[in-house]
Design a protein that fits this description.
Chain A is mostly helical. Chain A is built from 14 helices and two strands. Chain A has two domains: about 325 residues, no CATH class; about 70 residues. The longest helix of chain A has about 35 residues. The chains are: A mainly alpha (about 425), B mainly alpha (about 180). At the A-B interface, helix 1, helix 3, helix 5, helix 10 and helix 12 of A face helix 1, helix 3 and helix 4 of B.
Amino acid sequence: MGGDPLFAHGLSLAVWLILLGKVVAVFVIVLVSVLFMVMYERKAVAWLGVRYGPNRAGPNGWLQSLADGTKLLFKEAFTPRTADKWVYKLAPYLMLVPIMIAFSIVPMGGEITIAHHTTYVQLADPPWGILFLLMASGIAVYGVMLAGWASGSKYPLLGSVRASAQLISYEAVLGLTTATVVMVTGNASGFGDALHTHAIVAAQSGHLAFLHWNFIHTAFVSFILFTIAITAEMTRPPFDLVEAEEELSGGYNLEYSSIDFAWFYLAEYAALVTNSAILVTLWFGGPNGPTVFGHSIGPFWFAVKVLVVLYLYVWVRATLPRLRYDQLMDLGWKRLIPFALAWLMIVAGFQVTNNVSGSGFGHWLAQKAWGFVAIGAAIVLAVLFLRAVEVGGGASEVETAQQDRLAPDGREVARRGGTP
Amino acid sequence: MVQYLPILLLLALVVAFAGGSVAASRLLGPKRPTGAKEGPYESGIVPRYRLAARFPVRFYLVAMIFIIFDIEVIFLYPWAVMYTQLGVFGLAEMAAFAVVVFIAFAYLVSNGALSWGPRQGRGGRAPVQLARSTTATVRRVPRPVELIQGKAPLPLGDHGLEPGRQPEPLPAGANQQAPSAQA
């Protein structure tokens, strides 16, 4: 069974020191990458919009986020009269803490030996591994919901109700697509190990390089669904109607000021960094990559992949317009969830009889038969579901047109722009 | 269990960092509370109403349907970890479970439980009807002259008078712009 080999020989002083060093290192990595990301996003969005972006604080403005944080630290923190004081103060912690400790499961490299103690380049490799991601995003819902509710104000409540519905809608997709990765990993690495993030990365290595990565192994579909779901889970554009300024003037964190507001900001970008790292871990082989003169440079490849994913998020933000709320809910419930569930069963069908040995077309068919059965069943159910969406989602075009031609008292009126 | 130790240490560090920064901010920041500052945000005007205690029931529906899918995901994970050991039997069991949940979900969708758009279900009426254009509605609103002279009742019951009672005629010269019957 997996787990960090650091603890194989008990907890000596050296092990404690290495452990504390790793904890502080991970904390600093998350904080620095958040400060970098806040700045980088503003710069990149400005460049994409042919503007300069912030360019005053520090060289070329690269210390801007540090300046912002310091300014917020010195601002007055006040609580609205209408707020529920305890919950109001608790909510920022509920946002920040789970997402910052979620980074501990991300593998950033292979193994490293410090003073005869071998350890993973990853803070922790607990048995439930990737479920930690689902836990973190599950608790973050409480942060959003309680922040809006405890403010005792109108717009934060609306924003938080919206946000909670959005977050839980896409959490199911997240769970289903992550389960696909767990299945593929279990097939490669054997019983019991499949939830370990280290095993997930190890299962994606091999002599065929990136062809072993999960986004190819699961034929792109799960990867695309996961990316959409995690973007919505972070309330990044185009799913950012949680903080739609035009309608909600800020959303669930409207009544927060000073460092409490900074926590929401920090949590948002910590989620961006952590989730990008987890996306790389699950689908792009984490730190796997070519070696240089026989030396493994896992952390370098990991950083490169995470930076590419982070840039994609900024790019999407600068490009896509925001969804409408009914489009958001329809996408989540009527497209992504059925699709993710069907794809999970199809992947399971193709892999469940992989251990049938032999060669030739007959054996290949025996291996893959359940996959084709799953595809057939998925098509039948998809037809059923499309009919259900049609019945429930809205009147058909003909009926709507008939309705529109009738005035409230039943007589027919001319439609706008039509002939009388 | 020792594998959880690093996460606990990081948790302690993050909580200490967050709590320490909040304490520092309380010490460093000014404290000048005023009534306007501590009021709930209302676009700059004084809020007149309490916070609404109710919001649309649709959000509860979403939460309940989510619980169904969350439980399904919980059941999926143990199977996903060891589905090769369970083989075709496990696949068939899980497929049966997933299909039953999915058909229930399709029933909910066909009932319009997850429809957020303006048009709700077959035969439902759209809240915004194209037929309610100016030609259909403009004649129902009495003109101001008729209102002033008390010939027509107010269109809405929201004028603070008991039903049926007409508003007082305005004193002469109060509304120079409106043409009157005497003029």
